Give the backbone structure.
Amino acid sequence: MHAPQPIAAPATPAGTATPAEAGTGTPADPATAPAPRADAPEFPAAAPPHRTARRPHRGALLRLGALLAVLAAAAGSLLLWDPSAVLSAASGPWRIPIALAAYGFGTVAFLPRPALNAGMGVLFGSLWGVPLAIAGSAIGAAVTFALGRSLGREALRPLVRGRVLTEIDRRLAEQGFRSVLLIRLFPGAPFQAGNFACAFSGVRFWPYLAATVLGVVPTTAAYVVAGASAGSPTSPAFLISAGVITAMCVFSAVSLWRARPRRSA
């Protein structure tokens, strides 16, 4: 008689635990364990962090305080000295550098540009007064931009909320040269306020400076010529300069009205 043959156990697919393994918790053979799927995460994905409102940190607030202190000191210093007296006393080869420095400092100290331009016309006449006033405007705009961008922008950017402020910031960032040019062409826009608005926005420096130099030419020339011919208010030069100022006001107002944000229907 033949010896009974042992009954073979049914084959199980690779990586499937046998009943004994499943019941006892014995790990399966590593050689036959299935490889992990490439697209399966090894650990569960972490929950997204809770978003909190962005607030300026302490360093940004300290820099903002330093900016306010610098501006207050510049404005307060006008109680101790008179820019027009300094310009009048300047003579010789230092007259032009002193005039440019006084003009640039005057813009930082919130002196009205029409008065500075008219003073340039009185001191240097129309021929030299116009380019010197434009150069002084560029110096003051560059200094103010550097102060605002380095000391105040980080603290004030989180405050840009609301539809109007967001739209203004977007236009300055995306259409920097054109937007700054429109601001400069409007004689009624405060020069220093425009400088800081650009510094706190996303506009780049060189388009800002180029648009400033180009945009201040008409009004600067008009005020310088008006200052140079102020002694004869009925002269053609004074009348033409006054007409240019009026025309630029109308043009700027129409341009700003057409560029206003339009509500969707």
Q: What stands out?
A: The first helix runs from residue 19 to 24.
